[in-house]
Design goal:
Number of strands: 23
Catalytic activity: ATP + (deoxyribonucleotide)n-3'-hydroxyl + 5'-phospho-(deoxyribonucleotide)m = (deoxyribonucleotide)n+m + AMP + diphosphate
GO molecular function: ATP binding; DNA binding; DNA ligase (ATP) activity; metal ion binding
Number of helices: 21
Helix content: 25-40%
Keywords: ATP-binding, Cell cycle, Cell division, DNA damage, DNA recombination, DNA repair, DNA replication, Ligase, Magnesium, Metal-binding, Nucleotide-binding
CATH class of the largest domain: Alpha Beta
Domain ATP-dependent DNA ligase family profile: 310-440
Distance between the termini: 69 Å
Oligomer: single chain
Protein name: DNA ligase (ATP)
Number of domains: 3
Shape: globular
Largest sheet: 7 strands, mixed
């Protein structure tokens, strides 16, 4: 445990990638396979179910620290992090028990969940008495599910690659899917001879960078493949033969490496029509009567273990396919994109698919024309454009230069800061989480919460303002004088009876501090409702003002062409080039 806690301390103490990489290399060069396996698992963002309720943790920690509950609560509010509060308040360790990291996980953490309350208390107190302050802090983070440290899985893979000499793409692929933190799994991960492919195993996703430079810096449009950036769930679908048997299996993996096959059962029959040894990359969407539905509809399908027929009818899933990663069992990731696209189009030509649709390409000769097409994204229900270099291979993770996401500007409103709350972790001493309001008549109505977008200096300045202009305090939250105005950006709106304003926003964040505006110049609720009405007209296929984004017809199965698939989502206003016309 001490060695893993030291690794955490080193990673948390620096923002330099080279120093983090060196710390990871030192750890994996010395750690036992089972300890290394659990380190990979936790550092990659995996979390076990929380074994002990927070209320019990607070009660037992206060008891061991010999503090009244009210004083423990005051300390917690000041620190802002439960794991750190417990680690700081507990008395020095009474027992010295150096155990491997894996022992603390398998013999204590995983057994806590099924233990009775009395046994949980004994196990926890023993653990707290046996660990030093840093070890306690890391242990508490693991136990509460709050363990986070600033390393990406790609950096972890790079470190293991440096230690073992195995190429990064191979390690990345071996870690995909249901990789288990065992000594056997870790030995297989670093085995030079390779690991037999599990038929369910997806490939590491290739990710795009946000385009920040001027579009003209990318060179000629002929070097790039342009597609719509869909607002759905990024996923890979797999159809492979069961080894040693005549049967086959279907798998759907999300980008977060969750197996979501059972959540979208209506896709399975069409995936089964794909040739054996096929892996497709695309975006799961809700498409009803040929109309692309907003992300809020897709949310009705997320997280469900069982999906009944009525929900499938009300919120029918489809998938827009834009890449072919494996064809007839052959890995195509090192083939250029233009070749993968060619094979993907040939694959779709002979299949009677309706729910799996070939993502249309956008053919424009100039960046100006491309920009004009991008400007229609919100009306079409998409987030902007994807630009992919035609010569690019399908790489693991986010690699700058080949794939760019050219998103449209967010929707914005100017709102007034009305409530503030202390943050967590390094922001525990700052008021960094804010609630913003807009005008409804002569009353400010809370509309959105945001905590990102300000610089550290701006956040300290706002924190000073909050402390000097606080009106009332409600636990960790305080109301403040309505004086500061901020421009708030968000992706979309939807009706929500749970919110006082009646509207919920998606991905709110602070774009800038409007020092040039007074509170009376902030936006009004009616302007936001008008935004929502505009979105609803777009999403309502029967609305008189609804744009013809999607043809009001169902896709004809065997006779449909690639061009018809494009029309299904974009209607007759979508400009098909000669390359997209169906053959005579």
């Amino acid at each position: 445990m001490r060695r893993f806690s030291q690794l955490f301390k080193e990673l948390d103490a620096t923002t330099r990638t080279s120093e983090k990489l060196a710390a990871l290399e030192r750890y994996f060069a010395q750690a036992e396979p089972v300890d290394a396996a659990w380190a990979v698992w936790f550092l990659s963002g995996h979390r076990p179910a929380q074994p002990v309720p927070v209320k019990r943790l607070r009660l037992w920690a206060a008891e061991l620290a010999e503090l009244p509950e009210w004083l423990f609560a005051e300390c917690y509010e000041a620190v802002g992090d439960l794991a750190e509060t417990i680690a700081l308040l507990l008395p020095p360790p009474q027992e010295s028990e150096e155990r491997p990291f894996s022992w603390w996980i398998t013999q204590v953490l995983l057994k806590l969940r099924n233990a009775g309350e009395a046994e949980q208390k004994l196990m926890l107190k023993h653990a707290w008495r046996s660990l030093g302050t840093t070890e306690r802090f890391v242990w508490n983070k693991l136990m509460t599910g709050g363990f986070r440290v600033g390393v990406s899985q790609q950096l972890i893979v790079r470190a293991i690659s440096q230690v073992t000499g195995i190429a990064v793409p191979i390690l990345s692929h071996r870690l995909m899917g249901n990789w288990q933190p065992t000594s056997e799994s870790y030995r297989a991960l670093i085995e030079p001879g390779g690991q037999e492919l599990n038929i369910s195993q997806p490939y590491p996703f290739c990710l795009a960078y946000p385009l920040e430079d001027e579009i003209q810096t990318l060179g000629a449009t002929s070097e790039w493949q342009a597609e719509w950036k869909w607002d759905g769930i990024r996923a890979q679908v797999i159809h492979r033969q069961v080894i040693g048997l005549n049967g086959s299996e279907v798998f759907i993996w999300s980008r977060g490496e969750e197996l979501i096959t059972e959540a979208f059962p209506e896709l399975i029959p069409e995936i089964e029509q794909l040739p054996l040894g096929t892996v497709l990359d695309g975006e799961i969407l809700i498409i009803k009567e040929g109309q692309l539905q907003p992300f809020s509809q897709l949310q009705r399908r997320i997280g469900r273990k069982t999906v009944g027929k009525k929900l499938q009818q009300d919120v029918p899933a489809g998938m827009m396919i834009f890449d072919l990663l494996e064809h007839e069992g052959q890995d195509l990731r090192n083939e250029p994109l233009v070749r993968r696209r060619e094979l993907l189009e040939k694959l779709f030509e002979g299949l009677p698919l309706a729910r799996l649709q070939l993502a249309p390409l956008i053919h424009e000769l100039t960046w100006e024309a491309m920009s004009n097409v991008r400007a229609t994204s919100r009306e079409r229900g998409v987030e902007g454009l994807m630009l992919k270099r035609k010569s690019s291979t399908y790489q693991a993770g986010r690699v700058r230069g080949d794939w760019w996401k050219w998103k449209i500007e967010p929707m914005t409103i100017d709102a007034v800061l009305v409530y503030a709350q202390r943050g967590h972790g390094r922001r525990a001493s700052l008021y960094s989480d804010y609630t913003f309001a807009v005008w409804e008549g002569d009353v400010l109505v809370p509309f959105a919460k945001a905590y990102s977008g300000l610089t550290d200096d701006e956040m300290r300045e706002v924190d000073k303002f909050v402390r000097e202009h606080a009106i009332e305090k409600f636990g960790p939250v305080c109301s403040v004088k309505a004086e500061l105005v901020f421009e708030i950006g968000f992706e979309s709106l939807q009706e929500s009876p749970r919110h006082k304003s009646g509207i919920a926003v998606r991905f709110p964040r602070m774009l800038r501090w409007r020092r040039d505006k007074t509170p009376l110049q902030a936006d009004r609720m009616e302007e936001i409702r008008q935004m929502l009405r505009t979105m609803k007209r777009r999403d309502d296929p029967q609305g008189e003002e609804s744009a013809p984004l999607v043809a009001r017809r169902k896709l004809k199965a065997p006779q449909s062409t690639r061009a018809e698939s494009q029309l299904l989502l974009f209607g007759d206003d979508f400009d098909l080039t000669d390359d997209d016309q169906p053959e005579a």
